[in-house]
Write a structure and sequence with these properties.
heterodimer, A: mainly alpha, two-stranded antiparallel ribbon, 23 helices, 66% helix, B: 212 residues, Rossmann fold, 5-stranded parallel β-sheet, 4-stranded antiparallel β-sheet
Chain lengths: 586, 212
Amino acid sequence: MSKKTRRRPSSVPGRAPATIADGTTPTAPVPQPEPEPEPEPEPVRPIRVLIDIEPEPVSEDALRGLMRDWRRGRATRHLWDMIQDGYVAVLATVMIGAMLVSVVIRAQGAVSACTSEGCLSSRTLLPWAALCGVLALTLMVSRIFGPVVASAAEGFWLMEAPIRRAKILWGRLVSVMVGAILVAAVFGGLVAALSGSSWSGVVNWAVASGLGAGGLTAVAAEEQTADRTWVIRTLQWLVGLVGLTALMTVVAVAAGWLPNAGFLNASQERFDLVVSVVGAVLLVGAGLLAILRLDQIRRARLVSGGSLVAGMQGAMYALDMSLMRDILVERDALARGHVRPTKGHGTGLAALVYRDAQRLVRFPKQLILLLLSIVVPYAVGALGLGVLSPVISGLVLLTALVPLLGMMRVLSRTGGLARSFPFSTAQVRTAAMVVPAIAALLWVIAVTPAFMGLGTGTAHLSGTDATIHAGVTGLAGLLGAVRWVTAKPPNYNKPMMQMGGFGAMPPGMIGNLIKGIDIVALVSLPLLFGWSYWISVIIAGIAFFILRGSMNMDDLSAAQEEQKRNLEAAKAEASGGKKKIPPPKR
Amino acid sequence: MAKQRTPVLKVSKLSKAYGSNSIISDFSLEVWAGDAIALTGRNGAGKSTILRCLVGADKADSGTIEICGNRLRESDPAVRRDLATVIDDLDFFPDLSVVEHLDLLARAHGLPDAEEAVDDVLHEVQLVAQSGQLPGTLSSGQRRRLALATAFVRPRKLLILDEPEQRLDVEGVEWLATRLRAEREAGLAIVMASHEPRLVDAVSTRTIRVGA
């Protein structure tokens, strides 16, 4: 009851109190207020123990519809609103897409006219490599995420209810499979087109990639129902190895190390046909089996994938790739759970370096990407793009060195752990750079022959120049990786920038996308432009100085403040100690 | 004695505000060796903000902080050597086990008998069974014990703790009180924020009510 309804009127509205002629109020007997009736006791409610209640059958479709209604009803913005607000971005996307398609068509025409040994082997083998790569990636992503996932809320409120989970989950599985088919088909077709395949070949490779990826997603889902991962892991390694072999063969043929693999031309069409058929069979067979067994997926497995998706989405909205990697690394460690502890060695900074090396020995798979990246300068040279090698190889090396900078990442992302060590930020970062720097040095030694033109048939650079170019490329990759792991995430406490229909954005958010790439470009572009390599070395030196934390702005301003105070104190002392020393301003 | 001349921690007129909301205003404090200061007060009174400023995790708007006579700079090795902290921003290496974390810290601080020190602390915080576990697999209470162990396994002159009793069981709180009292009696300076009266009573030589 509201206050208004509870308030009793002091008099009847519209009616004046009665008066007699002399103006006095009549004295009427005052009515005694009636005693408040005793409140009736609440009826005792029986305690409902829901043991013997037979629940009514639940319609999963109705539940799904209810959830959809709630979600749509509570949305503050719809997709159409977003498109309307961000029409400039939509137009730009359409235009860029059209330009890309045009570029691909032209490139296909130009490359298909090439009949050199290198072009022919690339045309034959690159789609294989791309197909295997996309299949391995599909398996990896499916294994990490699920592929069938449920959010934490669904896991708690819905998956424990007496319903058939399969009816809720099958739509998701189908969506994931369709998504895998589309993405893989586009990628497979693109690589086939860019390597100069005919348009029918492009379609064949696109279909093979799509159906293969869809089929393997179905297999991954079926394995998820059986709560197994080893099958998918084994498949992933096998497919990856086949793809790597194909890529290496392309390089070897282009470099003239192997004769043209002409025998593969004949089998190419059969191969993509075989992959398409097998993919389709897996898609239907494993897909149906997975749908039938969706009820068997454990709730924890579903929710775990859902949490990972949510975490990745959050990191993606902040365009924070480092955070995305942190989530995956943390998950990997969680799955491993336990290690055999090893003894440390040395004291001081040496102890840090030793532990970093030990981590690498413990998780040698972090080196796989680095080993693979050695091929890149050779491949780039073999494809006649040697001039671009410092930039391309530097970017690939950046990616390969990031896993080796795990210690620096942890010591940079929050201050707590770094504060526990009795070293300055510059000392800690330098120590954390030692092992990756040694790895980069070994990489430089391994790729120097590529810069000398080994395998391209033509001498590219002299021995000294090649060594310097390889060294600068190694520096670019290392410093780019250091920048990538140490860059601060966007600061949401600072004033935001208005970004049209996309809402507010913290400054530095877009810059997050190019962190690391900027350093690689700065260091390696002088070589591309044919300028003196000293320019690259000087830029690398400055970048190293800044990235190791030697130029901490907080420390510099504190030191400046300290000097100022000391000066003021000295002046005050000289003038008889009467001058007041101002407190420091931070 | 040198410790009589220079306080381990000297805070002068510390102020900190978030926007127009002043959290700390002209906060001053001197902590000498063997002192244990307990900051108490309701949630949001500013205890954690004071501690974060004291360790350099947050920058104060004005005021000075000196640790063993050195002006506080968060990345100064001298400050880091003297100051051990357990506040909420402690991170762990995801691929190093519990015992390896402690071993690394002890060695980084140049402890001559690192292995022995690590064994002692590991027993004390009752994480021997978890010594090979990666931090991500520890329960919240075990993570808190590991965080405390990182502070106890290394040399220090000043210990700053933010609600160290959090997530500890009853026995854990009793152990912590005993340990901190022993540390204080051995000459360590302690500043801690706490909501646990038993811990405050057992450890502190002075209690400051923040936001009163």
